[in-house]
Specification:
3 strands; about 30% strand
Amino acid sequence: MRGELVIEIQNEELVLSGDGQCDSPGFSAKNLCYFLMEVVTEYILEVKDMDKPPVGMKSSTMETKALTNALDGLKNKH
């Protein structure tokens, strides 16, 4: 189904929205799950997991890095 979805949206303009959910509140979070959704169709296009080590052990930068990874992943699928 994922392949069909990528083909369906391949030549469309996308309206994207994203949000991340940490495993715990505040600056002590160790993991984050980030979702990138196409607003019009409400399809979840990317899901990225992020841990603290790749972002220099700073939980406050996990969401930004996860967004970048999700957008890169979406671009690479087209």
